[in-house]
Amino acid sequence: MLFDLSFLEVGKTFPPYSELERLEMYRQNKLLFDHRLQEVFAAYLERIRQIVNKFSDTDWAQMTPDIYSLDMDYFELLSIKTADMTVGDPPTITIKKRVLSQEEIESGGEEGEEQRHVVAEENLKALLDGTGLVNKLTPLVIDISRYGDAVMRIYYQEKNGKNNFTGISPEMWFPVVDREVKENRLYDVLAWVDCTTPEEADENRREYILHAQIHAAGKYENRQYRVKKMDSAYKLPDGSDCQIPRFKIEALIARGKMIETGLSASAIRDFHNVTTSESIFGINDYDRINAIIAELGVRYTLEALVLDKHTAPTLAADERNFYQDAKGQWNANVGGVMPVKDGQYPQYIVWDASLQANHSMIEKLEKHLYSLSEMGAVLNDDSFGASQGFEALETRMTNARLKARRLGSLMVTPLKELISLISKKGYSPISIDELSVQFNDGLPLTENQEVNIAIKKAGGTAIEDVSTILQEHFGKSKEEADAIAETLAQNTANPFTGNFLNMPPSDGADKGEPLDGAQETNEE
Question: Which residues contact 44 (CB under 8 A, 6 or more apart)?
Fold first, then answer.
């Protein structure tokens, strides 16, 4: 971790050594996501080479570069399915209704509060639509899965006078924290290197510029440095090679004025996976399954090599059907008519050896992959075909749902902070306390489950903010929810805590329809 801005001083090396392990992990995981496994699993490729050398008549030089046969998109699929489970069903983001005191109710404050709530909801909807927030959540979760961290930058749009935000690769992100309290963020530095000379130029003649954007609460500063690329190789603390290019900072060549953002915090917002006590960076999904997938690649590749070598069909025919050509080579006369009165019919013989031991190893590896990734039922399509009913599907999806729930809970507070900061310009300010964010795991819930969750959120008592509950748990739009809430408000019994729970479920009804049915029952 970084504790000050000294890593940007003249004479220092960029990126700083303390960040190399993190940046190398980003580089490798990006390659895995892009299906470039051979560039990361070079050691396993060499292992295949040594095994192939045992086949005396196999020339490694003639093997194709893509001999490493496992390219089943496990990494990409894992990240995309994690995003599907977390934000595939978009989270419900609403404005909470303020609970009025008895004095406010007696003084007629309900009508004013209702009008205020309507205006606040319209303001929130304008912000969500204007920023495209829901659509940007999927790449955000994909970054959290493959890198452990996702970084967003809030920026001001001159053309419409409103704030917006965009995703930033965490490879450019260098946070500076308090040495004693790591949660206290001092600066967020975005830094990247550009080559200012043509790509075809000789490496010794190339010139590089380091761009640094230093963000603090409510402001940021731009700097440019002249840097020189270093050629010396170096290793990470664990002894492995590092492919991240490093540069020596030679001079500060430009320094811009401090730019005010109008925000109460840094314009750089980060979302992260689970962290540990000694780091501010999240744990990615790839590290725990790298070795398993690499070994699966070895198993599949070797099986393919053995089958290619030994399963070519061989023709068998009666010896009377063979003839010798002008060159002295023997061939079988199988293209015309041949006598078979007492002879053998021509046939192809194929190798039928067993690879059961290899298959058993593959099954064990895949079992570990499904378990460690926490996405077994999602990655293995057989799980869906084997499920019998909704409850069985729920049971099989337990680990994946728990993972999505954990990730969603980690995103609630950063997402509220992001929305609140964006609202500072171009929108009516939104307080974090006003926002309600409900993540869904992508699996449909039964009507009774939705009702039970709603009652628990209300503490087992009558639900005051019926509109928000209808939007979060029953898929209703704001207009539909407000209309139902207004109708329900005229009843003496609250349908969530009264007769509604005793009603028989309506077959084939979509989410929310039992509420209308409850109204009809009460009227009767």
Answer: 68, 294, 295, 297, 298
Residue 83 to residue 89: CA distance in whole angstroms: 10
Calpha distance 444→496 (Å, rounded) = 20
Half-sphere CA count of 502, side-chain side, radius 13 A: 7
**Closest CA relative to residue 153, chosen from 144, 142, 137, 164:** 164
Place of tokens 């903010």: 465
Q: 31 is written with which tokens?
A: 């390659």
Helix (H, G, I), strand (E, B) or coil at 93: strand
Averaged pLDDT of the chain: 79
**Helices 398-422/133-147 angle, 10° precision:** 120
Each residue of 181-220: pLDDT tens digit?
988 999 999 999 998 887 766 777 788 999 999 999 999 9
Tracing tokens 């209308």 back to the chain, one arrives at 516
Q: Which residue's structure tokens are 């990247």? A: 192
- In this structure, what token pair is assigned to residue 61? 């030089």
**Distance between CA atoms of 29 and 293, rounded to whole angstroms?**
13
| Cα angle 52-58-64, degrees, rounded to a multiple of 5 | 80
The residues pairing with 435 across neighbouring beta strands, listed in sequence order, are 95
How far is Cα 267 from Cα 219, in angstroms, rounded to an integer? 8
420: tokens are 């609140």
Look up residue 458 and give its DSSP letter.
T
User: SS3 of 253, please?
Assistant: strand
Residue 420 to residue 257: CA distance in whole angstroms = 26
- Give how far Cα 82 sits from Cα of 22, 53, 404, 408, Å: 22, 40, 7, 11
Task: Determine the Cα angle at 119 with ends 437 and 154, to 5°.
Answer: 55
Check residues 227 and 111 and name the one with the higher pLDDT. 227
- Cβ distance 500 to 514 under 8 Å? yes
Q: Taking the CB of residue 233, how many other CB atoms lie within 10 A of it?
A: 8
Over the stretch 329-347, which tens digit does the pLDDT of each residue have?
877 766 666 666 666 677 7
The partner residues of 176 in beta bridges, in order of sequence, read 2, 187
The residues, any chain, with a CB within 8 Å of residue 332's CB and separated by 6 or more, are 315, 317, 321, 322, 323, 346
The DSSP H or E segment spanning 118 is: helix 109-131
**How far is it, in rounded angstroms, from Cα 479 to Cα 483?**
6
Instruction: Please report, for residues 51, 135, 354, the alpha-carbon distance to residue 56 in angstroms, rounded to integers and kept in the order given.
Output: 11, 55, 22
Q: Compute the distance between CA of residue 187 and CA of residue 310 in angstroms, rounded to an integer.
A: 62
Q: What is the pTM of this model?
A: 0.74
The two tokens of residue 367 are 């079992």
Q: Is residue 270 predicted with pLDDT exceeding 90?
A: yes
Average pLDDT over residues 419-440: 92
Q: What is the DSSP letter of 336?
A: S
Angle between helices 290-310 and 42-52 (to 10 degrees): 30
> What are residue 331's DSSP bridge partners?
323
Distance CA 470, CA 480 (A): 9
